[in-house]
Write a structure and sequence with these properties.
By secondary structure, the protein is an alpha/beta fold. Helix content is 43%, strand content 13%. The strands form two sheets. Strands 1-2-3-4-5-6-7-8 form an eight-stranded parallel beta barrel, surrounded by seven helices. A two-stranded parallel ribbon has the order 9-10. Helix 3 links the parallel strand 3 and strand 4. The longest helix is centred in the first third of the chain and has 16 residues. The protein is elongated, with a radius of gyration of 25 Å. The termini are far apart.
Length: 387
């Protein structure tokens, strides 16, 4: 694998499904998994097999139909979990078991009522169990974002020695600032003697709105896998947004990183997930929101109409979206009005537009948006009184 290739680990079908109201049936999961493979993700986390018979079936069926991507099943550091995950993944061409345990003192003391040494041994044990079934084992150090770095390094070194091929460093509560998360990844790169034998993965939550920034900071400091979801779906405030990290890496070529994702499928994939999981995308969502390529301010519209690059850093075609939109509101200017009138077949000179603009503002002050029917009315009225 190229040192500059970033693996995209999609957990829409597992962490994304944890959003209240987003439960998927097996057929829906299979459909989305096939589309995720077409999109070009490297790993599909298909579910948590021991959590329910339905989830076991979904992971099992997805494992049968996916031919290119790795299919991953989640488990806790419990032998039965791992055995069940292995059974669900039995037909997978590229199976991965994702297992682990909480490593922060919050989790060790308050969740497990345990101590650091016991958690270390349980971490080693779960990887050892998983390694009996598959070659590709990912270990997650839950709440790594709030875990003491020296202890975290000790755990990571031990699980790699036990056979972990990927080490997941989750900011489970979305607490870290980007520089803190980046420094944590760098600390592991510099202080885990066998870190070269495993891929470091970022799994960041969005509780403070920093999941994407943290994931990019992780990659800059040595991580080579990002765990993310379509539309940023996930527990509580959500996960790192797949479309955001993919386009950040694509647009910032100076970083030198690539992914295998076909960006032109991002917008249709977003719509499919939103429809299937019954979770609408907020209009101002980066990359895939309805307003991502819409312009309503007169200053912005004028610049955009002269050259799109003045206000758009992404061509909507590159993410599979429709063309950019000039939305007419009371904040719009004459150039936007002239553009929209021309698009629906009217030819007016500058003097006409100056006069039409006054009538346009009267309508725009009443309505939130001036639509095509309004433009026809304004144009036809103007023509009738100027004949």
């Amino acid at each position: 694998m190229s040192e500059n290739k970033i693996d995209i680990f999609d957990t829409t079908l597992r962490d994304g499904e944890q959003v209240p109201g987003c439960k998927l049936n097996t057929n829906e999961k299979i459909e989305l998994a096939l589309k995720l493979e077409e999109l070009g993700v490297d790993i599909i986390e298909a579910g948590f097999p021991i959590s329910s018979p339905g989830d076991f079936m979904s992971v099992n069926e997805i494992a049968k139909v996916i031919t290119k991507a790795t299919v991953c099943g989640l488990s806790r550091a419990v032998q039965k979990d791992i055995e069940t995950a292995a059974a669900a993944l039995k037909k997978a061409k590229r199976p991965r078991i994702h297992t682990g345990i909480g490593t922060s003192d919050f989790h060790i003391k308050l969740k497990f009522h345990s101590n650091r040494e016991d958690i270390l041994q349980r971490a080693i044990q779960c990887v050892t169990w998983a390694k009996n079934f598959v070659d590709d084992v990912e270990f997650y150090a839950e709440d790594a974002g709030r875990t003491d770095n020296e202890y975290l390094a000790k755990v990571i070194e031990a699980v790699i020695k036990a056979g972990a091929t990927v080490v997941n460093i989750p900011d489970t509560t979305g607490y870290c600032l980007p520089h803190q998360y980046g420094e944590k990844i760098a600390f592991l790169k510099n202080n885990v003697s066998n870190i070269d034998k495993a891929t470091i993965s970022c799994h960041c939550h969005d509780d403070l709105g920093l999941s994407t920034a943290n994931s990019i900071a992780g990659v800059i400091n040595g991580a080579r896998q990002i765990e993310c979801t379509i539309n940023g779906l996930g527990e509580r405030a959500g996960n790192t947004s797949l479309e955001e990290v993919v386009m950040i890496l694509k647009q910032h070529k100076d970083l030198g990183f690539t992914t295998g994702v076909n960006s032109k499928l991002l917008f249709p994939m977003s719509n499919l997930v939103a429809d299937t999981m019954r979770m609408p995308v907020q209009a101002n969502k980066a990359i895939v929101g309805a307003n991502a390529f819409s312009h309503s301010s007169g200053i912005h519209q004028d610049g955009f109409l002269k050259d799109a690059i003045t206000y758009e850093i992404i061509n909507p075609v590159d993410v599979g979206a429709e063309e950019s939109k000039i939305v007419l509101t009371a904040r719009s200017g004459r150039s936007a009005l002239a553009h929209r009138l021309q698009k629906i077949g009217y030819q007016f000179d500058k003097n006409d537009i100056d006069n039409l603009y006054q009538q346009f503002l009267k309508v725009a002050d009443i309505k939130k948006e001036v639509v095509e029917d309004d433009l026809h009315m304004i144009a036809n009225y103007y023509k009738s009184v100027t004949v």
